[in-house]
Amino acid sequence: MIVITKSNIDNARIEEIVAYIERNEGVQAHVSKGTDRTVIGIIGQADPALGDHLRGMKGVENVIKVSKSYKLASRDFHPDDTIIDIKGVKIGGSNLVIMGGPCAVETPEQIDEIARLVKAAGGQVLRGGAFKPRTGPYSFQGVGVEGLAMMAEAGKKHGLLTITEVMTPEYVDVCAEYADILQVGTRNMQNFDLLRKLGTIQTPVLLKRGFSSTYDEFLNAAEYILAGGNPNVMLCERGIRTFETYTRNTLDLSAIPVLQSLSHLPVISDPSHGTGRRELVEPMSKASVAAGANGLIVEMHTDPDNSMTGDGVQSLFPDQFAKLLKELEQLAPLVGKEFNTEKEPAGAFVEWKK
Amino acid sequence: MIVITKSNIDNARIEEIVAYIERNEGVQAHVSKGTDRTVIGIIGQADPALGDHLRGMKGVENVIKVSKSYKLASRDFHPDDTIIDIKGVKIGGSNLVIMGGPCAVETPEQIDEIARLVKAAGGQVLRGGAFKPRTGPYSFQGVGVEGLAMMAEAGKKHGLLTITEVMTPEYVDVCAEYADILQVGTRNMQNFDLLRKLGTIQTPVLLKRGFSSTYDEFLNAAEYILAGGNPNVMLCERGIRTFETYTRNTLDLSAIPVLQSLSHLPVISDPSHGTGRRELVEPMSKASVAAGANGLIVEMHTDPDNSMTGDGVQSLFPDQFAKLLKELEQLAPLVGKEFNTEKEPAGAFVEWKK
Amino acid sequence: MIVITKSNIDNARIEEIVAYIERNEGVQAHVSKGTDRTVIGIIGQADPALGDHLRGMKGVENVIKVSKSYKLASRDFHPDDTIIDIKGVKIGGSNLVIMGGPCAVETPEQIDEIARLVKAAGGQVLRGGAFKPRTGPYSFQGVGVEGLAMMAEAGKKHGLLTITEVMTPEYVDVCAEYADILQVGTRNMQNFDLLRKLGTIQTPVLLKRGFSSTYDEFLNAAEYILAGGNPNVMLCERGIRTFETYTRNTLDLSAIPVLQSLSHLPVISDPSHGTGRRELVEPMSKASVAAGANGLIVEMHTDPDNSMTGDGVQSLFPDQFAKLLKELEQLAPLVGKEFNTEKEPAGAFVEWKK
Amino acid sequence: MIVITKSNIDNARIEEIVAYIERNEGVQAHVSKGTDRTVIGIIGQADPALGDHLRGMKGVENVIKVSKSYKLASRDFHPDDTIIDIKGVKIGGSNLVIMGGPCAVETPEQIDEIARLVKAAGGQVLRGGAFKPRTGPYSFQGVGVEGLAMMAEAGKKHGLLTITEVMTPEYVDVCAEYADILQVGTRNMQNFDLLRKLGTIQTPVLLKRGFSSTYDEFLNAAEYILAGGNPNVMLCERGIRTFETYTRNTLDLSAIPVLQSLSHLPVISDPSHGTGRRELVEPMSKASVAAGANGLIVEMHTDPDNSMTGDGVQSLFPDQFAKLLKELEQLAPLVGKEFNTEKEPAGAFVEWKK
């Protein structure tokens, strides 16, 4: 931590600040006088609150954090890529994993048919929501626990892992019973009780970036889960809120290489929610892989015009999904990634029924 | 809802869109051909998901919501101001209420001393956090349930209402047992399970705007609580995230008159978190009142340099707090507000001990 | 300037960085080793580009500016408020100045009638655009030089100063011939050739903040004019672009006290463009004055529904304008400001013709 | 244009609004009453200002644009891709063009050496600034007209086109004399006098997106140039300003497919300014191409640590540049693009001298 003083403060004030700092055990102040301002370096493990206090003190212009506030999530701490192995499917490192499926689980037939198509196209994980976070209280809120069972059944039958969103600590256990990966939605990235609860289990977690969160806050949210004892965390970029309204969000692809350099955790991209428009899913999926993503989570539906949530607007049709995966299979090796090594070639596209 | 087609689509496509709309019971389509595009008005109560589906259909350029998705929070539905009466303290309408206190409850002595000073200055509500939402897992997380008891005790002794933050549905009951008002923090504005739980009780709720939420999303979040059966909701503007980093957030004071015109609920301003800098609390408090706020929630601490959270940086000293309230008492009548009618003149400032 | 290294870099690399810094004349490096990272303070007057170079060097994590890049605009350099005296009207310090008028000058009759009403209400400056910056090339672009003459005439007749926007260096001289104050619009805040040209004259300049500019960039833009030799600069907050679309911009009122603390220049608020909605002009005008603004620039039109630009939507009617000024006159002394000392009491409202 | 009324307004008010609309020649109003609000469609070519006026009228809730305000830039107007042919180098369509070079031209030797390396790597255009837009007045402002001559000489010798930034209308002619392409910087995207001047010549223009501009504003800015008579416009995405500060800007890659669908103009990506960090240039260049960009503009310098501007921090070294182009050559065909068809295989990297 570094303290920068206001210009022209007197020595007595500097000494008071130094004394205030050194009251903290194991912490030393290191004063460096400039022509205009004085800079005080703080050496040792200081409590983050110390910086905030100092910022409020008389004579202090600014306080700058030097060390990161997260540790376990940091690549300094864990230089090698984390690779999460779930029943033989590897996520992280040079593997490119594709998660596909509907926004919401609707009926056993719907999820079974979509699972079949995800598998045929080369996907490895089936996505689907049973509990839906909705802006207004009068919208469809998901089919609930029954949906978890439907999805688990479909995943098992077609040889796919499953991922579903969990919204509150009390549902973590039941979701973990049915699904292979638990997703934390963008609105819950800083739902700290939920994060803490997820730290107490071992089920892998896909943590979505808050739509207005910085990289630093995102990694601190991951740190909550890691610090609780669950090392199986994936980060997911899903678009941030900006002034542009043509797209639902602005997919921040720089987040992929930045998060991979700051952290060892796998980084997944969500071009469906990140754009909110079906026609942008293909180019932004390719761009995500080219930027180095460890995987994609993509919405696909057999009948998007009649899906129960309105997210059909961004869902690919099954033939678009299969074509995309075929093209990603070609693109992956150019950026040092392998596409679904366990499987037959991608894009064995088959007919589907609505 | 209004559907705008792409330019130059043929009649057959328009008929398909109309047929798709009219499959919904009680909904009619009204076609209006322009020189370039066709506009289809949807008349009747359509499901919000219909609009999303339409947006994804071939030939559709855009879909525009005409009706608001919230009802109970809307001034159309409830033209008069909501005035919440808590043990004789009225919030809403022409009343100007001041809530003051520390970021976090620390010790019985600390909260008792601060309560005494809030009361002496003319405040009516004591604020203080027992559970603290913190970006990183290694920061001080609050003193917990014990803090609730300390604050309730201090409030009772000094004749103040109390307000505290609740972060998760399972803590709603215990917080409501001790505090007069429950606060939902900015990160939980869309924690829908928490909102639903708060709808099942009658304790007044101060709902903070998500730091990246629109007015529409904010009012939809309030709607969750209202729709559950709890009519006692206050809205709180506390700053939004922008590209400016000099202030912690950008306090959006236009939110005050806008929310008051869209809704009947009281609007409170938080200049402490909204700026994150002590020296800005006074001008932005006055500006909030001048913009028409129904109240303020302001951090005050007897010893901010040694507070347990780092939020001391934005806490007023007791003498600054007393002076501010004295000045607000003069300002209030100029904008049609009454300052704390139950009490002695503001700002009877007294000595304090750290 | 402070350089923060990456963690665990070796001594040789640190020495290279130090050597690189000390190649610059009059600059010294001051090394401070922490437990994790090393901090190198740079003492002396370093070129700003040095920091950028250092940021790109191997082993460097971050570079932090300590000194401000602007000097003449800074309160460190000029501790007293700048008060600009234009023909006896004082702008800055404890004076509250009101500038009012139409978005665009349209006809001699229009501007004369509006000038009469601005004066009657207690305004001191007549605003009006002759050259209009418009998003699209097919919109009305202003009446040009003729408009300047019409406005000068109306100002003279009614005893008002005049302010008009200048968009390009080649028009600076002609605008300065007719108007008392030249305005730089939000889109031109970083039109450096225009700023440099304005530095060569003595006519006062009202510089609007770029709608996506930081305080630091804003003060650096002012520095261009000051450094050229023109000390008569006013800063104008006029709203920034955020994700909220209900208001045209988000008026950032914290900018008022912040800019007044960083700089000695007067700060004017523009609640008309800052909100883009007529009904918000009154509350946000009052909030601006309560936050400490040195003046307001407000749109007023006798017939806004038929104005030549579309900005009628945010123009006050003359009676609203007169009422607002009357209320501001009462509010001003509560925040240490004096309203138009040269004149009769505000708000002597009179009938008007469209 | 569509007008949406407030709820529950009476028929008389609706008739007044209709009468107001129909005063405009060639414009018709089409009323459609909903259960709650009335929608009035405006048919015919209405002036954009009409919408703004209507928005300000009593009883009007909102006004929505249906037609785009730009025409010549729109793909509706010009369905085929624009391909700009400059001395045989084709920009647009399936061609992938690479522009490379330093931030600023410094000396004849510097620009000659860099030109040699751009050419050897497979680039087709040499970039370099002679006039530099700088935030503060005390930074290096470019070498001026002499720099234009140096760059023209280097381009000619090595068989490269040249591109340079022009900042003010009066310099357009001299810049066009020396350079093959003129660049409008992000701060000047809405410098309308500059845009108008560029419309009067035929030299191709690369127009950078304002760092806080919407797609709609960007295309309207292009429209100024096109409407003036210059059809040779390229659009350049260079990052927008968001709350994230780790990267200098947030490169919005969705802009590439969106602009290509709304417009026929070529879209170039600038990963150097779009990220502000050297290590992100490679992944974001690949992502840009994968998203469908028609070209890239990339900073490269033989000695970035000693460049005259501080932009060395984002400049690639020559070997990184050559490696990148070699990889892009492989990537291009996977997304339907051809890399520099006129040349030898990319990446014939050669030694360089600082």
UniProtKB/TrEMBL annotation, chains A, B, C, D:
Source organism, top-level taxon: Bacteria
Keyword terms: Transferase
Entry keyword annotation includes Cytoplasm: no
Ranges of residues in domain DAHP synthase ferredoxin-like: 1-68
GO molecular function: 3-deoxy-7-phosphoheptulonate synthase activity
Domain DAHP synthetase I/KDSA: 82-331
EC number: 2.5.1.54
InterPro entries named among the record's database cross-references: Aldolase_TIM, Class-I_DAHP_synthase, DAHP1/KDSA, DAHP_snth_FXD, DAHP_syn_2
One Pfam family of this chain: DAHP_synth_1
Protein name as annotated: 3-deoxy-7-phosphoheptulonate synthase
Gene: aroF
